[in-house]
Every structure is written in C-alpha cells, then in structure tokens.
Amino acid sequence: KMSAAFGRLPTVVRWLVGSAILAATILAGRPAEAQLKTFGVQAGAPVPYIAFIPLYIGQQTGFFKEEGIDVDIRYSSGAPQATQVTAAGQADVAVITIEPAINGYEKGLHGKIIFRTNNHLIYYIAVPTDSPIKTVEDLKGKKIGVASFGSSAVPVVRSILRYAGIEPQPDTIVPVGVMSQAMAAVQSDNVQALGLYDGMYYGLERAGYGFRYFYHPTLAQFGNGGVFASETIVKTKAPELCGFGRAFAKSVVFLLTNPQAATRMWWKVSPAARRGANDEEALKTGLPEVLDIAKTYDIGFPPEAKYGTIDHQAFKSYMELLKQEGVIGAVPPVDEVVTDSFIDCINKFDSGQVRKVAAAWKE
Hints:
alpha/beta, 5-stranded mixed beta sheet, globular
C-alpha cells in the first residue's frame, strides 16, 4: 500500500523523498564525527612545539580519524608533568622523553612506554667549533653549562665525563639557561661547553653558531623519546593505542616523504613559525627546522623494519646510567616500564601507500 501511495505522489515530491532516503543511506554508512573516540594526548611542552609535528600531521591528514580517534592535544610544563597527568588517568598517552617514566617508577608512578619515537639520545655535549677543546678528555677542569640542574641532560653529561676518566666536581655543571643565555655564558667564558639537547643545538646552528659534538660512548644511538600510557589505559584501550601508534607512524612516513607539506601543516598550528615575505622565502627559512626534526624520527617502517621497537638491553643500560648518577635508587625490571604488546598492531600498515599519499598531497 505504501508503495502504491508513493507512486501516486507528484514526480517532484517523489524525487525529493527519494533523494532524502538516498542521502540518509549514504550517511548511515559513514563513520560520523560523533562516533570518533576522543583520545587525549599530553604533550611534554607548554606550547605547540615542532618536535610534536607527527601529531599535527596526523590531525591534518586524517590519519588519526581513520583509526576512529579524535586526538585532543594538551600541553604541559614539561615531560615530568605530562607523565604525571597521564599516569593519573587525565590523558590517554603522553609524548615525552622517557626519563620521567623511569624516575617515577619507584615513587609509585606506574605505566609503560608503548613505543619509541626517535633514533638517538638527545642529550650530548657541545663546544664551539673554534674551541681548543678537541676531545672529551680536554674537558677536564672545564665547566659545562646546562639548561638547569633539573635537566635530564645532567646525568648524561656526567656519564660522558666519567667514561673519559673525568670525575665531575661540584662546580663542573653550571645552569645557564638556553639559546641566547647559554651562548652568552660560553662567549663570556663562564662555561667552556654546553650540555643541552638536540632541538636546542639545531636552533643555535640555524642562528649561525657552529659546534663540535661529543656523544655518549655507548648510548648515543639509544632513542629516549617515546609514548607513555598508564597501566589502566594499557589494559583497557588496546585498540585505541594501536590506532594511535599506527597513525603516528604514518605521520612520520608522511613527514619524511613530503617535508614541505609537513612544514605548512606546522605553520597552521604555529603561524608565528612562518617567517618570510612569500612562500618561497618562508620555506627556505622553515624547512631546515623541519628537516632537523624529521631525521631524528627516522627509525624504520614496515615491511623492512618494525616501527617503534625498543631495545630492552639499551633501555636497561640507560636506567643503570641514571642509577649510577643518583637519579634513581634502583633499576626496575625493563618489563615494568616498557611493553612490546602494541608493536605488531602498530606496524599493520602499508608504508609505500602512505608515501604515495604524501607525495601527491595538495593543500
């Protein structure tokens, strides 16, 4: 009867009704925005920062939404606060350097690093290229400037010196701040070297300063950037953690394939980072900064490698370094701080296809 009644309706009415039904059918087959699960990401910095560029790429390309999650990026005073907030259940993951997850373990802050994000230990020593200091051994009796006494660079600097047979003295490490403050301390000879982190050195190099670097002799290739989740989230949100990690990995592939597009995505998050009278001039200024970050994120992708894999032995050695330098009282079992349970699912994507998407990306 309803079919017969529909047939007696005027043609235009039948067309409108049919179109409405078709549209409803199409929409019903699509994942609506409301069906996306909000996924809180606590970033270990107080403001948008270029080191978080995979997060911004994942948002703007739709990689996160393809995994059914709507990433909400929140900012912190630093990695320690981001880790604490996440461990307390106020965020799903934290994008951090791993030290707070290690340091907090014996204080009851329990969670896991679920995948690695970078390819080297970001803390190392630098001297100006015209410095008479040519080797680590030449640092004996010299002062080394760090951002602050609370910096995670401090134990690494001390360990580098110890490997060279230099026993750090109470006045060996001096807090000097960062960027222009740090360079002023070097130029005034208040310190003869710096113990900062890679991003700071990249910025100083772009400002025109040149350095000679001294890396940790056994842990230089240990990536100490990672993603942290509380034990509760690890147990209850496995699909979301897999999806987040997979989208993050895709975003890094995109970054390495099309850094120009990635730079423009960064500008959308931080308009002040776009410096130049036109696009060509802005890219000439901004692209090197993105390329510096990109090379640290290149840790291998499927099918050739498993993205995010953590070297357990190197992780243990790094914790032993922190114990030796008095940062922690005891070295916890690696499995108490790290989990490999998400690595396989994170790597279930076609990196070649992502490269094609990145290469063809249009604004």
